[in-house]
Amino acid sequence: MSFSDLGLSDKVLGAIDAAGYKTPTPIQSQAIPHVLARRDVLGIAQTGTGKTAAFVLPMITMLEKGRARARMPRTLILEPTRELAAQVAENFEKYGKNNKLNVALLIGGVSFDDQDAKLIRGVDVLIATPGRLLDHFERGRLLLSGCELLIIDEADRMLDMGFIPDIERIGKLVPFTRQTLFFTATMPAEIQRIADTFLHNPVRVEVAKPATAATTITQLQVATGREDYEKRATLRHLIDGAENFKNAIIFCNRKLEVAALHKSLVKHGYNAVALHGDLDQSARMAALDAFRKGDAKLLIASDVAARGLDIPAVSHVFNFDVPHHPDDYVHRIGRTGRAGLTGTAISLVAPFDTKSVAAIEKLMGTSIPWMGEPVAAAEPGERPNRHGHGERGRGGRSRQPRGNRSPEARPPRDPQPRREEAAAPRTEKPAPVRPREPQPYRERPQRDHVEPDASHLPAFLLRPVNIKA
Prior knowledge:
The protein has two domains: 3-206, P-loop containing nucleotide triphosphate hydrolases (Rossmann fold, 3-Layer(aba) Sandwich); 217-380, P-loop containing nucleotide triphosphate hydrolases (Rossmann fold). The protein is an alpha/beta fold. It contains 15 helices and 13 strands. Residues 389-424 have low confidence and may be disordered. The strands form two sheets. Strands 3-4-2-5-6-1-7 form a seven-stranded parallel beta sheet, sandwiched between helices. The protein has a six-stranded parallel beta sheet with strand order 8-13-12-9-11-10, sandwiched between helices.
């Protein structure tokens, strides 16, 4: 099957051909005809399957007819992060170059006035994050009553980030008769509930088993120490010895760890950039552009970059920290092995990560091979402290939990005599208590009455006042 068999317009087909694509991916070939037929679609697909083009291409074809009105967008696309929203806007620029469509991007970190100016001119496609969209609506600068098509992308990521209440509110602002496209990588119970609320008799398109990785990705795990400096040394060794290394995304669980690892790698001479939620929009885009262009070989990121970012030809993914949620592992390693290319994903596993790895393997239904010897699991009762290290802290002294200390390790106590075995009671008599002698009554001295001095008062206050009954 080719793109010409899907019902797309000639202008869209010309843009696809100019981009160098010949054959649609499975989700594109299954979803696009239903979107053009104005059906609601529930798309379940892992990351890197061409999901974005599955709704961008038919949207451009549908928007060739009609005209936008001021402050009333014709279509609305909701994305969980600024990066994903900006990436979808780039797709419209690439595939819609033969069409004169007005595309507006409503994301944080950008001036409200600049965004409002675009809304006044009229918008065919509005791409937004939920929070900024509601901000514009509450200011009275946006009307959603003319929205014909609503796309909710990365719905499970929306759930993780706490956007579901905002999504439900937005769903009440758009017309009931709109067409809805709902895309997600996993289908937990809450996402199923939201899908049932938003979709009307949808077509279910599922091209991959939920929470599975692409077969083009080689997954490995390597044992490392529990301390951060040990993990950093292991990471540098893996980067230096990686085969077919082109570039890599390195994932950490927390923003502070992203900053610390970025500082360490730059100090050791690696060309690296960082991406996490505390950076402003300009810094985020600068880091992504440097990595995409090849100016930086390493991108250290938190999970804000784990979903949906289309960064082509990433050769390696390193999990500096094993993710707490198994689903995040699938999305992380999905940054490599995209569009039929091969990739390698390596996780650094400390003794306290064995349970998280077991949960990942259970979710995926397969085991992840080890590079070298497997990691030794942490001792029972031993757990990481709040810094992520083991109970052996940075000073090297063992901080064994209080309840796990063996009786032999406790110092012996001096035996104490029982109460009944104590020395014989004292036989001497207690000293007699002397009665307290009464004290004579002492009369309090009386003070002489002194008339107040009124010489400082004004004269009118000293005049007599006649009060009539």
